[in-house]
Amino acid sequence: MAYQYSETRKHILTPERVIHDMKDDASFGKAVAPFMLILPPIGALLATGLFALVDNGSRIATVVSWMVCGLFWLGALMIMAAGVFILKNRSKPLRPEDIHIVKRRLDTISYNERQPTSGRYSVERDVFYFEGMDKYYPSPTQVALAKEGDMYYIVTAVEGGTHPIRIYRADAYIWNG
């Protein structure tokens, strides 16, 4: 049985509503980024202290241990740079002209499709394929309510973009943009 709204209960979809909804998506990065700035230097400082306490008498072992310590600091700097990047990009307020919304039909729902990860392994995820768009990874609720052929409003970052950022069911919303 398909999920359907009646015409009298449809919500109004505006660029402002989409931006408001997307602010909730960015809250995780804003919460994690401060820890990315604080914890890595503490860890690198602890590693430096540990290497300074260890004296095994060999000059080569001392040089190697300080090189490893330098790698700790390099890793800490990289994590801190990522934290600064997240804070900088997530703190810019979105404007209605920063997003573009198109209406598309859901062509295919692929259940448990294997998706490669950064490592050797892959994960199984449900995927939506819309006409002329890249893959969209829906939530379990979105999958439960969807069927092939449903119409959706697709949010992209730029006009003509093919990467869906967010989706809204066309039978649940009236576009007012």
**How would you classify the helix and strand content by structural class?**
alpha+beta
Order of helices and strands: EHHEEEHEEE
Summarize model confidence as the mean pLDDT: 82
Strand content: 15-25%
Number of DSSP helices?
A: 3
Range of helix content: 40-55%
- Extract low-pLDDT stretches: none
Q: What is the CA–CA distance across the termini?
A: 31 Å
Can you count the beta strands? 7
- Radius of gyration from CA coordinates: 24 Å
Largest sheet: 5 strands, antiparallel
Give the strand order of the largest sheet, numbering strands 1, 2, ... along the chain: 4-3-2-5-6
Shape: elongated
Explained architecture:
The protein is 44% helix and 25% strand. It is an alpha+beta fold and 177 residues long. Strand 2 and strand 3 form a beta hairpin. The two termini are 31 Å apart.
Defining key terms:
single chain, 177 residues, alpha+beta, two-stranded parallel ribbon, 3 helices
Give a brief outline of the structure.
With 177 residues, the chain is an alpha+beta fold.
How are the SSEs placed, and which strands pair?
Elements: E1 11-13, H1 15-53, H2 59-90, E2 100-116, E3 122-130, E4 135-136, H3 140-145, E5 151-156, E6 166-169, E7 173-175
Parallel strand pairs: 1-7
Antiparallel strand pairs: 2-3, 2-5, 3-4, 5-6
Helix pairs in contact: 1-2
